[in-house]
């Protein structure tokens, strides 16, 4: 490798990671510095109150695995705890709306966080830098402040009433810390360009840095503060949840697409649905289609619906349910789906009757060929912030199915199905693409489309992440605002429901690196505020 590259949705975080690379750190060191900063400068998307997974490839050490630090349901949770509170499922299938939004906002919404233990484990097992050194940029930005960016403010102010979930602005108001941090003295939400200072978070990060690891969060002083706060506010998480938290390491699942070997996250991650979509699309001559044409979109939509049906039927925590992803990834299964699409069969996605989601991503490759694709998140923010700690907890309980007996149903200590699909593509023995995205149910379709853009349409990495996208995770084709209106009209004539997004760049936010001839180039999805930096 002749250079190193890092790409993520937040400029401040990318800069922190790039500085680590310039100082001789490896891809894992850079990803962790970036991740800590993301928790400060995009605090509703990620942070130490969240969770995620890191796809790690280190050829010289013979390491290729997924470090899973997913959130776990409270040990006091029960499968039927909210059976009488169900209203409906979101149209994109990402979450479940309950009466009073009790699983979406407040202390009952929170699952046991895994991010800090994930960061510590990654540094210990793969990294080279000191713990305190990696946290310093995040502490500095929390203490001194940073400018509020466009995407952050858009997300804060976004009206989610159509989904039925609580609006983020109400979550920002939920705690005393939130009201102090995110609003002016007159109660008006801070605006783009305003300085956001979070001294409480700076002090918490300093405590974590001095402690030398994550024990303070799961067994020490922070654990006591967290447990006491949840008890006082009717939450389910207690000291036992924190003390018994465990992460895991697993091998990636593999697929292939037109001779490219693709490694990605196994269940409960959504790498396998992304691979299933690619395997279906491989049965079509995608490159001969006009990109964004009605026929291209029709085939994509029908393939995405079939992927979604399989995911909804089977996805869950493999420690609790059998997920037959080997069968779903077989070429025979893909061929059967493709045959139905070619025959003109229209399938239907069912939802429980009665978007854009809250995650971030990092892609990195260093000069030694070490690669990281890391997706971490709050799932959605809960609004809950322990007084004096500064960080917001995840709101992941709303992502469990409140109906017992389903693959994604609630169970004590269970990990909910994740939409993350951190992915590395290989040509022969060498990585050729490092890719992933935030965006909930839209991640797998968006990542697959960007891979097809590079492989089938021979796009550059920037063209691939910027090209118009669609999603088909319901019975409506969601199209971005750069799909031609004539194409929309043609699809409607064919009998399809079509929803046009007002966004120019929509449906997940893919951040990718493409490697050719030993040179890596990165691209940040224009939907968000990020950037790519290459280091010679």
From TrEMBL:
The keyword Hydrolase applies. Keywords: Acyltransferase, Glutathione biosynthesis, Hydrolase, Transferase, Zymogen. The keyword Hydrolase applies. Cleaved by autocatalysis into a large and a small subunit. Its EC number is 2.3.2.2, 3.4.19.13. Pathway: Sulfur metabolism; glutathione metabolism. It catalyses: an N-terminal (5-L-glutamyl)-[peptide] + an alpha-amino acid = 5-L-glutamyl amino acid + an N-terminal L-alpha-aminoacyl-[peptide]; glutathione + H2O = L-cysteinylglycine + L-glutamate; an S-substituted glutathione + H2O = an S-substituted L-cysteinylglycine + L-glutamate. GO terms for molecular function: leukotriene C4 gamma-glutamyl transferase activity. Belongs to the gamma-glutamyltransferase family. This enzyme consists of two polypeptide chains, which are synthesized in precursor form from a single polypeptide. This is Glutathione hydrolase proenzyme. It comes from Rhizobium croatiense. The gene is ggt.
């Amino acid at each position: 490798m002749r250079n190193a590259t890092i790409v993520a949705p937040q400029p401040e975080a990318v800069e922190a990671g790039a500085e680590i690379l310039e100082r001789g750190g490896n891809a894992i060191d850079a990803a962790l510095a970036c991740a800590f900063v993301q928790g400060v400068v995009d605090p509703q998307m990620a942070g130490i109150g969240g969770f995620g997974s890191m796809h790690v490839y280190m050829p010289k050490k013979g390491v290729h695995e997924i470090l899973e630090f997913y959130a776990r349901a409270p040990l006091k949770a029960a499968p039927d705890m909210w059976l009488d509170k169900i209203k409906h499922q979101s149209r994109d299938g990402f979450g479940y709306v309950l009466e009073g939004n009790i699983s979406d906002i407040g202390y009952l919404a929170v699952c046991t966080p895994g991010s800090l233990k994930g960061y510590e484990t990654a540094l210990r097992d793969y990294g080279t830098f000191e713990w305190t050194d990696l946290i310093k940029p995040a502490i500095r930005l929390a203490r001194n402040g940073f400018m509020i960016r466009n995407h952050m403010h858009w997300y804060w102010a976004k009206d989610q009433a159509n989904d039925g979930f609580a609006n983020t602005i109400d979550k920002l108001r939920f705690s005393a810390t939130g009201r102090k941090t995110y609003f002016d003295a007159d109660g008006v939400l801070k605006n783009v360009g305003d300085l956001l200072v979070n001294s409480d978070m700076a002090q918490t990060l300093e405590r974590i840095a001095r402690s030398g690891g994550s024990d303070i969060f799961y067994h020490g002083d922070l654990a006591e503060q967290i447990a006491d706060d949840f008890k006082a506010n009717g939450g389910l998480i207690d000291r036992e949840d924190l003390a018994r938290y465990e992460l895991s390491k697993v091998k990636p699942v593999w697929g292939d697409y037109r001779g490219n070997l693709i490694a990605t996250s196994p269940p409960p991650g959504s790498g396998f649905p992304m691979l299933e979509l690619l395997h279906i699309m491989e049965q079509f001559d995608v490159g001969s289609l006009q990109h964004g044409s009605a026929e291209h979109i029709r085939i994509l939509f029908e393939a995405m619906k079939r992927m979604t049906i399989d995911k909804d039927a089977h996805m869950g925590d493999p420690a609790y349910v059998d997920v037959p992803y080997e069968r779903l990834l077989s070429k025979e299964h893909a061929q059967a789906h493709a045959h139905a699409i070619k025959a003109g069969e229209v399938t239907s996605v069912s939802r429980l009757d009665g978007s854009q989601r809250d995650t971030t991503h990092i892609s990195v490759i260093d000069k030694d060929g070490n690669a990281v694709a890391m997706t971490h998140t709050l799932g959605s923010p809960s609004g809950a912030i322990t007084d004096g700690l500064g960080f917001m907890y995840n709101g992941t309980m709303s992502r469990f199915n409140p109906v017992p007996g389903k693959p994604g149903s609630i169970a004590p200590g269970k990990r909910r199905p994740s939409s993350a699909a951190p992915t590395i593509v290989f040509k022969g023995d060498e990585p050729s693409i490092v890719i992933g995205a935030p965006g909930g149910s839209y991640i797998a379709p968006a990542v697959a489309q960007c891979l097809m853009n590079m492989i089938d349409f021979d796009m550059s990495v920037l063209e691939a992440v910027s090209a118009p996208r669609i999603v088909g995770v319901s019975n409506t084709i969601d199209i971005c605002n750069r799909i031609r209106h004539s194409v929309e009209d043609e699809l409607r004539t064919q009998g399809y429901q079509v929803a046009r997004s007002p966004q120019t760049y929509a449906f997940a936010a893919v951040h990718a690196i493409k490697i050719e001839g030993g040179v890596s180039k990165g691209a940040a999805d224009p939907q968000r505020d990020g950037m790519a930096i290459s280091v010679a």
